[in-house]
Amino acid sequence: MIDKKSPIPVYFQLKEDIQRKITKGVWEVGQCIDSERELSQTYEVSRMTIRQALGELVQEGVLIRQKGKGTFVCDPKVKQKDMMSFSEIINKSGRTLENKVLEFKIIDTPQELIDIFPFEKVYKINRNRIVDNECIANEIVFIPVDYCGFINEEKLTGSLFEILNEFGYSIDHSKSTIKAVIMDKRYKGIFGVTEESPLLQTLSKIINRNGKVIFVEEATYRSDKYMLEVNISRREGFLK
Q1: Domain boundary assignment for the chain
Q2: Which of 2, 74, 120, 201 has its CA 20 to 30 A from that of 41?
């Protein structure tokens, strides 16, 4: 199972094999996997190597350690690390997505958005993003009516990025703030749950290649179902 002569590190081979077993259902969601000692004997590698492989899988949200009990398989999270639409992420993961429109109307541009959108009217779009029959995210989007021409509720069951592409807008990047939110009664209703759990909320300006803000989005995600990976690099010459 492990080729110790391979240029691929042993811990990485081990990590891939454990992930493969989870995918095949050898260990199912919520199930405790073999102990470090058992894995060490099975794969004939050191416990330090086992610990390194398991540590990376824990960081990636594949496994979770419970003190005194063992290491368990996590319910898979939606993981976003690139500038992709939510629809693209789900499609690439092979899961099913349903967009449920909760609110769709034309409103006067909110005062806090006047500096961003100097227009009289904007669309307000409130949607739940349902993955494999479970609500993972709620998104509230504001986009100038002048940018989109005609949009109806039926179109919004698909990808907003694709709708914008139809109108000639190519999304380049976003500027976002991120914060943790406590699940209150309103969010319990939105997500259809009874127990409290942490939420992750982003407020984003979605920008095209010309530096124009196309829409503003407030997105709230179940943090037990969604992972946002942020890569930060220091620009050369920024600090001296």
Answers
A1: 10-73, 78-228
A2: 74
CA pair distance 200, 187, nearest whole angstrom: 12
User: Please, is 155 exposed, middle or buried when counting C-beta atoms within 10 Å of its C-beta (0-12, 13-18, 19+)?
Assistant: middle
Domain 78-228 coded CATH 3.40.1410.10: yes
Question: E strand or H helix at 174, and its extent?
Answer: strand 171-181
Angle at 229 between CA 82 and CA 231, to 5 degrees: 75
* Residue 135, H or E segment: strand 134-144
- What's the gap between Cα 2 and its chain centre? 32
Ordered alpha helix ranges (H), the chain: 10-24, 36-43, 47-59, 86-93, 145-148, 160-166, 185-191
Tokens 């220091």 belong to which residue?
A: 234
Q: Report how far apart, in Å, the C-alpha atoms of 177 and of each of 66, 88, 132, 140, 202 are.
A: 31, 22, 28, 15, 6
Token pair, residue 179, equals 């914060």
Residues 12 and 27: their CA atoms lie apart, in Å, by 19
Along the 240 residues of the chain, how does pLDDT read in single tens digits? Answer: 688 888 888 888 999 999 889 888 899 888 999 999 999 999 999 999 999 999 888 877 788 888 889 999 887 655 555 445 666 676 666 778 889 999 999 999 999 999 999 889 999 999 999 988 889 899 999 999 988 877 888 888 888 888 888 888 888 888 889 898 888 899 999 999 888 878 989 999 998 888 889 999 999 998 877 766 655 555 555 444
10-73 fold:
Arc Repressor Mutant, subunit A (1.10.10)
